[in-house]
Amino acid sequence: MTLRIGMVINPTSGKNTGGRIGTEAATLLRARGHEIVDLSGMDADSAKGQAREALAQGRIDRLVVSGGDGMVHLGLNLCAQTDVPLGIIAAGTGNDIARELGLPVRNAIEAVERIERGTARRVDLARSVIGDGSTIWFGGVLAAGFDAVVNERANGWRWPKGQMRYNLAILRELPVFRAIPYVLTLDGERIETEAMLVAVGNGPAYGGGMKVVPGAKFDDGLLDVLVLSRISTPEFLRVFPKVFSGAHVDHPAVTTHRAHRVHLEATGIVGYADGERFAPLPLSCEVVPGALTVLT
């Protein structure tokens, strides 16, 4: 069967890996007789505009993104609550959503197999209506604590590039960071706390393998909420590396919750979801079961 495949490729993702592997996959798909509709555009906004138009006009059978979690974020916001499945060519730096879905990473041939013959799996998404009334979605983890503060700091710098900018932002923020007062409302239950870290997970991992909410599942109809309460900076440095294995949840300062609807309130915090700048707090999100079809 010949497919009409809309492709959005991030040429710079994963130190240009996204462009190389995405182009290789497009070449393989054309060689197999499929129609490739290039929707990449000059930037993310133009790509989103072109993809929305193609989806609205019914010109594509599936949408494929090539890059990291940011590209998956773009794709799921386009395909949410539509009949068009999302194909993922994982070629970024973190690739957390793809990896946790069991998809191949940085492998064009295996990615093409999923795009052509993969199982159409329904997964949940988290939906949020932000201040301007627009609806945005995330598929992985919403960061709203120290990790979000570091992201906001790093994004304000033009230099250096890549992971080093994030590492320097950690060094800049850590000595001055203090626990943040939060109000969390989980399915109507109000919780007031001071916390170092607050994360809301539709999926379990972010940041290139950090299993911050290890119990989160893409298809259980719930959001997992992790709260790391006030601890000293030395203790925070001791606990935080355990996030790569998920062992941090055993620390007495960590509590986890599950809810359908989550409302977060804090001053001066901008939430980051799927590694992308999402929205400032306060914000609300709710799980929408089966909101996305993804090719796995």
UniProtKB/TrEMBL annotation:
N-terminal signal peptide: none
Names of required cofactors: Mg(2+)
EC number: 2.7.1.107
Residue span, DAGKc domain: 1-132
Keyword Nucleotide-binding found: yes
SUPFAM superfamilies: NAD kinase/diacylglycerol kinase-like (SSF111331)
Entries under Pfam families matching the protein: DAGK_cat (PF00781), YegS_C (PF19279)
Keywords associated with the record: ATP-binding, Kinase, Lipid biosynthesis, Lipid metabolism, Magnesium, Metal-binding, Nucleotide-binding, Phospholipid biosynthesis, Phospholipid metabolism, Transferase
Any single Gene Ontology cellular-component annotation: plasma membrane
SMART domains: DAGKc
Sequence similarity: Belongs to the diacylglycerol/lipid kinase family.
Protein name: Diacylglycerol kinase
Protein's organism: Phycicoccus elongatus Lp2
Origin organism lineage: Bacteria, Bacillati, Actinomycetota, Actinomycetes, Micrococcales
